[in-house]
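Attaching the record inline, Q. Sequence:
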Amino acid sequence: MKKYFSFNLNAVDFLKVFLPYWVVFLGYEAVVLYLSPLLKKAEKEPSVLLPLLGIFFLAVFVFVLVAFAFSILMMRKYVSAVSLSGQSLSFKGSVPKFVFMNLGGILLSIITLGIYMPWYIVRVSRYLTGEMSYQNKKFEFTGKGGKLFLIMLLSFFVPLAAVIILYACLLTPAFLVSCTYTTATWAYTIPITLIFYIILIPFIYLIYKWYVSSIRLEAVHFQWNTQFFSSVFYILAQMLLLFVTLFICWPLACINIYRYFAGKTSALSNDKKIGKFGFEGKNGEGFLLFWGQALLSILTLGVYIPWAMKKMGNWMLKNTYYEAE
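Structure, as predicted:
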């Protein structure tokens, strides 16, 4: 028998947490927009450039601290709004612990030139997952930093570096000399951007599969039953849908990918399949809903976002089910 999820977010209550964060975010964007032209003008004046850089990095630092703090506060509201068969999930993350954990992780990642980043991601994932529970059973994250390091290295950084080097060799200086600055810029930018997104697809696939297989709920663990090439080509098709329709069909791409991801996910106990997930939402209904909520959020300068999250989240989850076997 299918058991459906539900999403009972209190938009007004969520707004009390979201609005201060949104004000800080808009303030940060205003500072960046104001400083960007000033930094460009002051490139050759160290006496002016250094103070401006100081203000810029201070704004970034403050915003990052606020983002980490509010992510925990918002997760408390968001996760607790999700329920299955009338039983809600819960999340009890600590703001100070999460903030200091991320500051330490970012610092170590910078010091190690990014090498520590996979272990930092695992640490954050383990903490966030471990603070969630369902029916008084705590979730657990068992992913390892070493495996994530290999996934990131082999599926993203090595292919990207190889493509950049090959492209730089093919695009000879003679070609650049014969082109205008604008033509040369486009010659670099467009192919590299497209290649970046193509490389990103298998990277996302491997990361998601690793992440799902690392989640446990006591004796139950989860598995994403997919084949590499079929999944990569499916995601690529959805990305092409975005570009071909000039992003007009972004709701359809999101819904199709979510349907694919949910439908391939199953629950196991002692390596035996005990249930599966699925999604039954209709594309046309989701398309109109998503666009409507996006436009309302834009027209209200973001104030409507909590209500948009409530309606979109409710539609997605009420059409998502778990079926025991």
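The longest strand covers residues 272-279. The chain is about 70% helix and 15% strand.

More tomorrow.
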